[in-house]
Structures
1.
Amino acid sequence: MTTPKLKDLDKIAREAERAVLDAASLDALKEARRAYLGRRGLVAQLFDQVPSLPAAQRPEAGRRLNELRDRLERTVTRREEELQGAAAGTRLAAEAIDVTLPGRRISLGRQHILTRTLEEIERIFFGMGFEIVDGAEVETDEFNFERLNMGRDHPARDTQDSFYLTDDLLLRTHTTVVDARVMVGRTPPMRVLNTGRCYRRDAPDATHMPVFHQADGFMVGEHITMADLKGVLAAFVRQMFGSEAVYRFVPSYFPFTEPSAELAVWFNGRWLELAGSGMFHPRVLEMAGIDPARYTAFAFGLGVDRPAMVRYGIPDIRLFWDNDLRLLEQF
Amino acid sequence: MKVLLSWLKEYVDVRHGIDELGERLPMLGIGVDSIERVRDDTVFDLEIAANRGDLMCHLGVARELAAATRTAARPPAGSPRTDSTTASDFVRVEVREPALCPRFTAALIVDVKVGPSPEWMARRLEACGVRSINNVVDVTNYVMLELGQPMHAFDYDLVQDGRLVVRLAAPGERLTTLDGVDRTLDPQTLVVADAGRAAGIAGIIGGAHTEIRASTRRVLLEAASWHPPLIRRTSKRLGVRTESGARFERGIDTGAVLSASLRAQQLIQEVAGGRVLSGTLDVYPSPQPKRQVQLAWPSVARLLGTAVGQADGVAILRSLGCQVQEGDENLVVTVPSFRRDVERVEDLVEDVARHYGYERIPEHMPVEETALASRAPVLEAERMVRGVLIRAGLTEALTVSLTTPAVLDGLRLPADHPWRSMVPLRNPLIEDHTHLRTTLLPGLLQVARVNVSRRVTDAQIFELGRTFHPSGTSVAERRRLALLMTGRVLRGAWNVPPEVAMTSYFHLKGAVESLLHELRVDGAAFAAAPVPWLHPARGATMSLDGRTVGTLGELHPEVAAAYDLPSSVHVAELDLEALLQRANFLPQFVPLPRFPAVRRDLAAIIADDVPAAEVERLIAEAGGSLLASVELFDVYTGPPVPAGHRNLAYALSFRSSERTLSAEEVDAAVRRITDTLTRRLRAKIRE
């Protein structure tokens, strides 16, 4: 290699710049740096030639060489950063994953739609100050029927055909029996709700199961009226079906309430029966040891299974008990 | 019950359109099941409440519609032209059971021509779902649909001695009823008999041998009132549901039996000709006076929560057929005999409210002394348990509490197993539902079977429910919890080793441990034990304070096969009440550690018949108070570990709440542990 000449300074500068920028790897860059900026590199050799210049030209030559050196250093640094970044990128690129492969999912558990509905009902009435209680599923004829004003020959017993266990014990046909239990020995005011399984002697079909759920609530006080019943049920309907829900509150008949009313909500173009209700019959209060001359009470019994069917569009009540996980996981 | 619009219009002016009527009727408490056009008429299928026998006819429904506009319905006339001959010369009536038959009337119509009914009558009957038979029988049915009074017509010449006797059946007495069934009666059954034998079952169905036929010339017409519970019981016992029975069991208008009979006599005359003998026999020994109810008008507002104008209220009651005497706020209301349901103030308030309009009762939130809303602790606990299991990845299932003893056979239960002691239903309906369940397991296994058969093979489910057990003369209800796990716990488990992705005994136990942890129940002991339905070498019991409170493990292959399940199904059943008794729902703060822990790993080769629980117990015992935690992190069998042994590796963590531990202290504790394991279990400690 021939000795560089100061007069070729511009050309050398261009070549040096190109060599640095073209370095394809950190090693090549190191080599280019050594060739130009090293102790025995071209720039050093040019500096060596400065003393041999006429004195008047020396400052100018020194200045231009310093400039060249500084510029090259900066270019090297920049190129070095570029090459380092690229090297890391290559290494990480080798660690690529297919982000479209399926995720690992721990299967999430779910609550059964019916117990969830029960809890929803409990929560709404809890919010209205109700005490949520629990009751037994095996009951006596006395509490399940007699104390609710349904004597032995009461025609309403026909619609509540029951499973008997002994002469006196049966599977409760409604959660209203818990109302009759709770009232005994307590002094009003009371507002109480319970939910749970009930049993009626119905053969399973698309709309019947011998086991089903109810929620029953009542309130006793000195000034409880049908208007209060309507207020509480309307509040429930709006909580459960939205503030725009339209409900119907019409006369009905139950042996343990007088007057009696049925609650239905307009849903998907038809009336969906939600509850039987009314003012507790004075005989029911008397049998529970509550003076009907002083206290009045409202009571309501909400169906759970059939409203849930309609609400969620489930066509057959037996699907609730089938527990097909593909169904349970939809809710 | 079906009513025809044209028929209603005979007794009341109907101003509403058909759809509007369909909306109005429910507002009065009369349910509408369907509305149907039949020829040029409209048929309403109505749902009548059990206490409103008076609505089981056109006149009854018409009365309600009339009252809605504060007018009165127009009942049809019942005044036959009568003959000079008197019926009592030919007919004798004897009521031996007056308590069961408060009123019995009999009329005789002679020279009758039995034949088809006129078309208008046949059409009306058929539109109401009653088959037209002949003009005489049709009249009895027509009047039933019109006035609500069921009747029966006998061929007088087939009634022995012209005598009708109301009596209980003799034991073994036979009767072929109109439905062609030959019945053997019992002495609980009330019959209408002639001088010799039963001619009909009172209030429910007539007998074949005295029925009206083409040759009948003389018609003996019975109209009576029967004790409703008797009719209900008999009809249930015999399994015979008739239009007649449906009305008598609700109770008909005893006061109007005679006028209904007269109405029928008139119609028979009109459609079948003949002469009505005078003096309808009427056995009515103790006519009930009309009921009177004192109604203080403020009680209406007390119950309804809204003030109904007294004038309107009185108008409502009057248009419903009540007589009302007003004295300021105090009314004396005389209730018409057809309203058997109205006995007291509340009944009148309901009538007023129905016609005032339930829709006009305001919505009001109760203003009463309030107590704090609360939930029974057991419900709160159940909700928590449910929540923990759901968070642990299990899905809640609900299964029917009715079952059959046969389901236990699939569980390989010994004959004397307590679960076999089941409470039977007295009156089961289907053969799969004859007893109350004593365990939740068969229900969950059935759920797994259904899912697996539909190729849903990943199932982690639980049920929280009650079981029922004989307890002296009573029945004990217990809260139990069952878990079942099979298939994958991890979805998207590509490249994941099966022992991680698939459920195992340890996943099941982990779920149970999570539950124990959340309930803060400590000291639960798991031990290998033979459990009939579990794999003999992969089953365990869980006990608390030495009492077994649950079982868990892999299903026995025979049980799995019996339920068409794959071999790797894991089930647990726990006595929830026992767990809840020990649960602590108010955990107390434990100060967070202020000094660092020192971790040491310990690996020991121990005979593989020593349960891990025993090793852990000895480590804890020997480690003393400085040992903060013991965590197993590896179990290894295979070379170089000798056969019959396994290597257990534990991470031990030592900590003091008072100071930073020195290496010497920790070393001493570890030495105590290794010495103990060596001495007690002949463990070989790996350095």
2.
Amino acid sequence: MRQKTWLATLVLALGALAMAAPFLLMLGTSLMTYAQTIAYPPEWWPQPATLENFRKALTETPILRYFLNSLLVAGVTVVGQVVTGSMAGFAFARLRFKGRGALFFAVLATMMVPVYINLVPLFALVSMLGWVDTYQALILPGLAGPFGIFLFRQWFLNLPTELEDAARIDGCSPWDLYWRVALPTALPAIATLAIFEFLASWNTFLWPLVVTHSDAVRTLPVGLAAFRSSMSEVTDWGLLMAATAIAVLPAIAVFVLGQRYFVRGLLEGAVKD
Amino acid sequence: MSAPLRRAEARWAFWLLLPALAGIGIFTVLPTLGSFLLSFAQWDLLGAPKWVGLANYQDLAGDPLFYRVMLQTGVFVLLYVVFDVALALGLAIALNQKVRFQALYRTAYFMPVVTSMVAGAILWSWIFDPRTGLLNALLALFHLGPVRWLSDTHWALPSLVMVSVWKNLGYDMLLFLAGLQAVPAQQLEAASLDGANGVQRFRFVTLPMLGPTLVMVTMMATIRAFQTFDTVYLMTEGGPHRSTTIIGFWLFQNAFTYFKLGKASALAYILFAVLVALSGLQWWARRRLSHQEDA
């Protein structure tokens, strides 16, 4: 038994090092001087360590603008997802109406649709509305989705009926039931969805790539890609790694802080059928 | 409950559902139908779409590049799924032993999952750098290389596979871990009392119980691999010599580089058909597995 644990530890430690290596390199290089980043043979440890690259990234490049755009888009998306998802999830879980099962199945079926199917018509729609390169093009398509509905339905199905019955006898309308009885119990579901959607929005690339082309509205992933190609002649790796770290660290912080909820959300997403 | 009350409840349901269903309807269902129609049309985004019947599909069927892209997509998916599932399962088994620092490992393996692929691509481009990258520095220790990872037609596709595995491994490992922890300890103990060794216990107790998880993870990895875009766009742009042009990237090029939106839509529906067929296969496999358990 002991032997096996040692083997498992070795495998895990080596694997973890391989997974974390890119991040360690990123941090190391972001703290280097330019001279150190172009040294040959390559150097791996910042000596002396400097925050100069971070200062430059935040003041002399559009990274801060991208960061604020990402924050705005992710923030509004999270609020929208929680509102639309909890309302619809409540209706599917606790209200009786004709065609409920079929409708819920149809909502789940949209999870199967690959992004590519919608990309072209969605872009056509957005250009027809004159929304190319605007915040609403980035935000509106992401305000509702099947995962949030599924998650909240699951949560509200488990509410004890006694609570609901008591409220109904008191003459509560379904809205009061949702707003005053059900939603206050759903904080863990809200946290799960909020973290999940924040990270999804923070990292999404393809759609923002298609609908934005100016620095004023670009989010971090697209902005970072544009920033990198803008230095295709000579790459200042220290500066690029500082910019990358600015994009990566908030996501990792959100994950570490909300790990408990996020992991559960992922597992539930996986067992959706 | 009385009829008026029931009607009132249905009316409330309507209003509660409206925002979510309107959003999904406008931004998912409508475009899905639009895409289907567009796949039978020629359109460059400027003029009006022109109905061409099956011409887009026929063009694809007669285009040697289409077959090459599909073949490369198949190779990419196969390589990715094999490495991803094998490594994720192996790591989950290791993590399921009573090792210390479980939480630390879980966090380390999960960091790439929450990192944007753009950041990941930048980090890996640097690791792949033939002259100053970490990977060739490691190979040099063993007097191997240097390999031109992203600019060698033989290595570019496997290099992208490596990045994709790095990105998603933590997620699939977690799914396997959840599956492993659902295997009842008594059954494993009973098997070892009957004299089964570790390999036999895994083969005859754990693996059958893990069957549904295995099917599900394999399926999700396959779907994910078929939809790969970011890494190709950011790291190789489909090259060198089109050796990494897989379906997602080619579709994007057709739509937004060549402005052949009809052809891109036809490609999207071919991809959709493949994914739907694979989901059907998964459903069938899971049913078979659960029947085996019953028997």
